[in-house]
């Protein structure tokens, strides 16, 4: 479809605002939100009853992707095989949010078990914009969560990001999608796709909101063996402080906490204790006062990139330069191999994780006629019947790459590539990797890397039907490296052309990647960047997508 | 919500699992067929395991007797040409309070699916949580097996589909186990044939892993699964292929179990299903070209087969024997051994049967578990366990010989009987007899050993009773021995009293002795003299010989003494006093 034609068919700004007002009235209360949500069958899988008689005026509401366990709402990962499944305990993320007074109102649609980039691989049908003429993909796999935020139905949403599942839908729906460092937020109660890559992601319309949710969730959880423990968190704080060792032409402008000569071990130990206290001041003052070195990797400037995206990238970089930052050419040579490594590792872990779905203990019960027939197989019929095609494809991929004959050529090689991807990043970042003894940081390196979130604009759902699975895998090429390295990354909405009205077929996400553990500096930098770029207001822009629903 | 039985259905009929007959548990996967026996459940199959074991033992005895000589002779001749090589994997349940990766209790309970955390049932979203206390028995086991403890080890997933494996994979330590390079020493005492001398069997590695759930047949179409056992901590002990006889194989398993018991690493043995063994068997000609297979770094071996899930020492020996003979038969007929997995059952101890060949082999697709951090074991911790390790059997043997004064045979018997419970009982009785001020246990050691091993042992054998420490309370036993040693019970009375206690009498020993009139009340001098005179009167010839003090005097004196003992009340007589009286009359 011609984007210009789409733009012409859009309603006038006045109309948009009108609908958005209606929304705002309804969305004042959580009950109202639920009422709205319950009308959107493909977006939201289940909604929650809201306790009556409660003062809800000030309550915040949030939606969870359907792979987070909740006790009052079913958790199905948008799969037939888990139909009707309820967790025996709410996920740690859910509990932390509830403890903070935030009400979980719904579970959102997704790609089955997180496997997909367009939220089309769902047992409950694909996630679509409400507006009939908008057939653009919302991205995936956390598409439902993204659309809820983009449509203004909730201020925040929780998704999960394995290889870009929060960042890509954020980019395609024009909102913020933040994937923290691996291990920052507890995965306990998150049904895994690929454990070593899965992270809990936050979606919102403003960085400030993302920060406030991140603060609630950024906690050590002893119940998650991969959660960063207090010791690791102290090391991270310390590594961040070491940034001031870096020779910096703007050093004289730094009025914040400035620590020189951190080489002395005792001194650094003392400082790492204080780091927690200093962190806030450190983050803020540095951000306003110092300039950053922004890395632009050559390898991301691929031929297949949509011209508008290249334009938006250049515009973003020029804005950043205007802010006083240095733009630095860097090289991340393993970028191309990263995607292949990801599509070996993630399916391998998935094939293992999904082996538990046999219909014996939970989920949809086994069909007695098909179970265990004499011809020999135990669960194949059940799994074949109830897993979606993409899930089956990835299970087969993973089963193959772990098999005795293929292990060395695929799984082991992919692990090596993963290590190289991590090294790539460690070679270009100023701050050393806090958890790797060997990592020293590159004094000539960069603080953040800025690249597009995806090489393409949101594709039409009709186009996707013609795509091969491989085509859709390629769209993850810019998000996967940060996932393999466990780095924090955020997708922020940008525009290619200020003159055109912002429309959802031209949503572009710009991705900022930071060193491991540098989540707060990254978020602060993202906030400043967003302010400087002055992005479209997603709530007003995208609320038109609900007009077809005639609320 | 977890406290219920989870059922699933088979369309085909399925075999009954008695608690310990889960022999084929690990043998199925999606790629292999579920070949359940389509037999109806009959009486025999429900019979208790113990009875089955006995029947099987009897059957094999008969078989042995029937084909002795001719056939056996041939077989022995033939074995001279062939070298048997066996490597064994032992799975042992660790003595822990929690499971390996969840805080659920590992205590036995008869309420199905009561001891569960979500992870034990592979509930989506649940994560493994390594339980450090599990390391205590694991480290004790590895140290007692003389292993090197690795400072860093990791956990892997071993994939296969089966009802008793809720996650679809077992968490084990395939690539980097926590202990390697161990050693077990076997001697004649452990059941080796004398010509085998002393053997040192290398342990390749010891790894931590999860146990599976328990499956039970409910009706023809339904199996019940109890997940209480799911996730229990096991150690898998993998030996090098260094065993060369069926006896040595059985001795090795027995020895490992006794070591695990001795250091409290395990409390349930083979009889209770807490210990299972898989054996790898290969043969090669002594004189011929060496084989071209190598296992665990041992090269030049023949093609091996694996026999899975053996659950008694006898079955290890019988299965190895049967498999060795099968392989030699094939090779001598010019055939070739297939690398395959075979099964063995009590009902047919003379043969192994094919379960699946190489093409049907499960590809376990080992993958490092991405949720579980590497396990770091500090050297200090290892040193601590090394210094506080309870004695292993060889040390116990020395202790029994030196401190308790037992013979090597008796000491060995005590160690090997009844999983060490007899030894504990023995020590209990000795300590009850020995005043706390006295450290010298030799005073009672031999005596107690005699009663517990031989007197009590004979009773157990004649009545076909299983040993249990509660059969005769240790206090009763020590009272009995004490009375006898004090001279208040004669030997025969003591034995009679033992039989009464054995029958289940729970009253104090002194009360029983009194009631049964067993207590020794010595005859007075007067009575002895009267008795002696009566005997002298009855046997003048012998008296004459004694008084002449001829060569036969000593013999005749004994004869007269025997007469005295025969005519007197044995319960009240002491031979020494009778002899003294006799001598004082005849030879003043």
Automatic annotation (TrEMBL), chain A:
Residues forming the catalytic site: 65 (charge relay system), 141 (charge relay system), 165 (acyl-ester intermediate)
Molecular function terms, GO-annotated: ATP binding; glutaminyl-tRNA synthase (glutamine-hydrolyzing) activity
BP terms from Gene Ontology: glutaminyl-tRNAGln biosynthesis via transamidation; mitochondrial translation
Statement: the UniProt record of this protein carries the keyword ATP-binding: yes
Compartment(s) where it occurs, according to its Swiss-Prot or TrEMBL record: Mitochondrion
Ligase in keyword set: yes
Domain Amidase residue range list: 62-231, 285-522
Keywords from the named record: ATP-binding, Ligase, Mitochondrion, Nucleotide-binding, Protein biosynthesis
Classification via InterPro entries: Amidase (IPR000120), Amidase_dom (IPR023631), AS_sf (IPR036928), GatA (IPR004412)
Family per record: Belongs to the amidase family. GatA subfamily.
Task of the protein: Allows the formation of correctly charged Gln-tRNA(Gln) through the transamidation of misacylated Glu-tRNA(Gln) in the mitochondria. The reaction takes place in the presence of glutamine and ATP through an activated gamma-phospho-Glu-tRNA(Gln).
Subunit description: Subunit of the heterotrimeric GatCAB amidotransferase (AdT) complex, composed of A, B and C subunits.
Name of the protein: Glutamyl-tRNA(Gln) amidotransferase subunit A, mitochondrial
Species: Lithohypha guttulata
From TrEMBL, chain B:
Organism: Lithohypha guttulata
Reactions it catalyzes: L-glutamyl-tRNA(Gln) + L-glutamine + ATP + H2O = L-glutaminyl-tRNA(Gln) + L-glutamate + ADP + phosphate + H(+)
Pfam families the record matches: GatB_N, GatB_Yqey
InterPro entries: Asn/Gln-tRNA_amidoTrfase_suB/E, Asn/Gln-tRNA_Trfase_suB/E_cat, Asn/Gln_amidotransferase, Asn/Gln_tRNA_amidoTrase-B-like, GatB, GatB_Yqey_C_2, Gln-tRNA_amidoTrfase_suB_CS, Gln_synth/guanido_kin_cat_dom
SUPFAM superfamilies according to UniProt: GatB/YqeY motif (SSF89095), Glutamine synthetase/guanido kinase (SSF55931)
Molecular function terms from GO: ATP binding; glutaminyl-tRNA synthase (glutamine-hydrolyzing) activity
GO BP terms, alphabetized: glutaminyl-tRNAGln biosynthesis via transamidation; mitochondrial translation
Protein name (database record): Glutamyl-tRNA(Gln) amidotransferase subunit B, mitochondrial
NCBIfam families referenced in this protein's UniProt entry, alphabetically: gatB, PRK05477.1-2
């Amino acid at each position: 479809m011609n984007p210009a034609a789409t733009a012409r068919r859009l309603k006038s700004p006045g109309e948009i605002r009108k609908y958005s007002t209606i929304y705002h009235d309804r969305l004042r209360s959580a009950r109202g939100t639920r009422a709205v949500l319950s009308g959107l069958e493909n977006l939201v899988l289940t909604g929650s009853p809201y306790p009556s008689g409660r003062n809800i005026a000030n309550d915040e509401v949030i939606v969870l992707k359907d792979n987070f366990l909740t006790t009052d709402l079913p958790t199905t990962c948008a799969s037939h095989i888990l139909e009707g499944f309820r967790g025996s305990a709410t996920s740690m993320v859910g509990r932390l949010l509830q403890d903070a007074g935030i009400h979980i109102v719904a579970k959102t649609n997704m790609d089955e078990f997180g496997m997909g980039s367009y939220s089309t691989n769902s047992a409950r049908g694909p996630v679509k914009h409400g507006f009939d003429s908008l057939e653009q993909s919302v991205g995936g796999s956390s598409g439902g969560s993204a659309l809820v935020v983009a449509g203004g139905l909730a201020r925040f949403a929780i998704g999960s990001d394995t290889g870009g599942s929060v960042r890509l839908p954020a980019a395609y729906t024009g909102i913020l999608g933040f994937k923290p460092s691996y291990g920052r937020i507890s995965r306990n109660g998150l049904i895994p796709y690929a454990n070593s890559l899965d992270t809990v992601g936050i979606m919102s319309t403003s960085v400030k909101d993302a920060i406030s949710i991140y603060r609630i969730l950024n906690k050590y959880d002893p119940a998650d063996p991969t959660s960063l423990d207090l010791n690791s968190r102290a090391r991270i704080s310390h590594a961040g402080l070491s940034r001031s060792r870096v020779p910096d032409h703007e050093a004289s402008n730094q009025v914040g906490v400035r620590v020189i000569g951190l080489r002395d071990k005792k001194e650094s130990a003392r400082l790492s204790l204080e780091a927690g206290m200093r962190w806030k001041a450190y983050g803020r003052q540095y951000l306003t006062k110092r300039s950053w070195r922004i890395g632009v990797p050559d390898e991301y400037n691929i031929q297949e990139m949509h011209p508008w995206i290249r334009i938006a990238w250049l515009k973003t970089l020029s804005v950043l330069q205007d802010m006083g930052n240095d733009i630095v050419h860097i090289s991340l040579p393993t970028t191309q191999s990263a995607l292949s490594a990801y599509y070996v590792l993630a399916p391998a872990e998935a094939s293992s994780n999904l082996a538990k779905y046999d219909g014996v203990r939970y989920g949809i019960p086994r069909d007695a006629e098909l179970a265990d027939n004499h011809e020999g197989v135990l669960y194949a019929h059940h799994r074949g019947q109830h897993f979606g095609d993409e899930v089956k494809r990835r299970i087969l991929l993973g089963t193959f790459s772990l098999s005795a004959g293929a292990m060395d050529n695929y799984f082991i090689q992919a692990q090596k590539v993963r290590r190289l991807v991590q090294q790539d990043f460690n070679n270009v970042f100023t701050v050393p990797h806090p958890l790797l003894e060997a990592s020293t940081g590159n004094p000539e390196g960069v603080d953040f890397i800025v690249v597009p979130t995806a090489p393409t604009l949101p594709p039409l759902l009709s186009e996707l039907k013609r795509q091969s699975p491989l085509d859709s895998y390629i769209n993850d090429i810019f998000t996967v490296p940060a996932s393999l390295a466990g780095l924090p990354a955020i997708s922020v909405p940008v525009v290619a052309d200020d003159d055109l009205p912002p429309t959802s077929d031209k949503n572009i996400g710009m991705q900022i990647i930071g060193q491991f553990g540098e989540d707060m500096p990254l978020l602060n930098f993202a906030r400043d960047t967003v302010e400087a770029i002055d992005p479209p207001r997603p709530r007003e822009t995208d609320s038109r997508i609900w007009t077809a629903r005639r609320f | 919500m977890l406290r219920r039985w989870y059922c699933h259905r088979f369309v085909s009929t399925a075999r009954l699992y008695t608690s310990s007959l889960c022999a084929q548990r690990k043998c199925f996967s999606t790629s292999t067929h579920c070949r359940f026996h389509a037999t109806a459940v009959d009486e025999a199959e429900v019979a208790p395991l113990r009875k089955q074991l006995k029947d099987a033992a009897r059957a094999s005895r008969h078989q042995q007797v029937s084909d002795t000589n001719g056939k056996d002779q041939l077989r022995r001749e033939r074995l001279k040409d062939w070298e048997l090589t066996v490597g064994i994997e032992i799975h042992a349940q660790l003595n822990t309070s929690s499971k390996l990766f969840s805080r659920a209790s590992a205590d036995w309970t008869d309420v199905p699916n009561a001891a569960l955390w979500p992870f034990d049932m592979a509930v989506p979203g649940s994560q493994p949580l390594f339980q450090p206390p599990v390391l205590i028995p694991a480290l004790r086991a590895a140290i007692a097996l003389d292993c090197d403890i690795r400072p860093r080890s990791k956990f892997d997933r071993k994939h296969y589909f089966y009802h008793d494996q809720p996650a679809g994979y077992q968490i084990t330590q395939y690539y980097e186990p926590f202990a390697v390079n161990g050693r077990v020493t076997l001697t004649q005492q452990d059941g080796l044939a004398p010509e085998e001398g002393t053997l040192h069997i290398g342990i390749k590695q010891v790894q931590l892993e999860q146990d599976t759930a328990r499956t039970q047949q409910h009706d023809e179409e339904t199996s019940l699964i109890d997940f209480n056992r799911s996730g229990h901590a096991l150690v898998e002990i993998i030996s090098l292929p260094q065993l060369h006889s069926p006896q040595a194989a059985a001795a090795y398993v027995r020895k490992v179990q006794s070591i695990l018991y001795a250091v409290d690493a395990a409390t349930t043995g083979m009889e209770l299903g807490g210990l299972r063994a898989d054996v790898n068997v290969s043969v090669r000609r002594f004189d011929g070209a060496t084989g071209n297979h190598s296992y665990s770094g041992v090269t030049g071996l023949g093609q091996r087969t694996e026999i899975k899930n053996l659950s008694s020492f006898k079955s290890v020996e019988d299965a190895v024997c049967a498999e060795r003979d099968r392989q030699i038969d094939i090779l001598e007929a010019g055939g070739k051994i297939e690398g395959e997995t075979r099964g063995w059952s009590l009902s047919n101890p003379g043969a192994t049967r094919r379960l699946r060949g190489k093409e049907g082999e499960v590809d376990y697709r080992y993958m490092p578990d991405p949720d579980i951090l590497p396990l770091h074991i500090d050297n200090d911790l290892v040193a601590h366990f090394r210094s506080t390790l309870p004695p292993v059997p060889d040390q116990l043997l020395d202790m029994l010989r030196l401190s308790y004064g037992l013979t090597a045979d008796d000491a060995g018997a005590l160690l090997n009987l009844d999983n060490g419970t007899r030894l504990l009982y023995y020590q209990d009785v000795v300590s009850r007899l020995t005043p706390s001020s006295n450290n010298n246990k030799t005073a009672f050691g031999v005596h107690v050993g005699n009663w517990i091993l031989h007197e009590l042992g004979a009773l157990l054998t004649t009545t076909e009773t299983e040993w249990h420490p509660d059969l005769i309370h240790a206090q009763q036993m020590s009272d009995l021995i004490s009375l006898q040693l004090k001279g208040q019970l004669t030997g025969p009375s003591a034995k009679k009293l033992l039989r009464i206690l054995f029958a289940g009498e729970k009253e104090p020993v002194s009360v029983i002795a009194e009631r049964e009139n067993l207590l020794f009340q010595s005859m007075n001098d007067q009575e002895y003299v009267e008795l002696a005179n009566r005997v002298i009167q009855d046997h003048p010839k012998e008296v004459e010989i004694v008084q002449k003090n001829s060569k036969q005097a000593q013999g005749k004196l004994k004869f007269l003494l025997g007469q005295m003992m025969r005519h007197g009340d044995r319960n009240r007589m002491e031979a020494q006093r009778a002899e003294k009286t006799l001598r004082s009359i005849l030879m003043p």
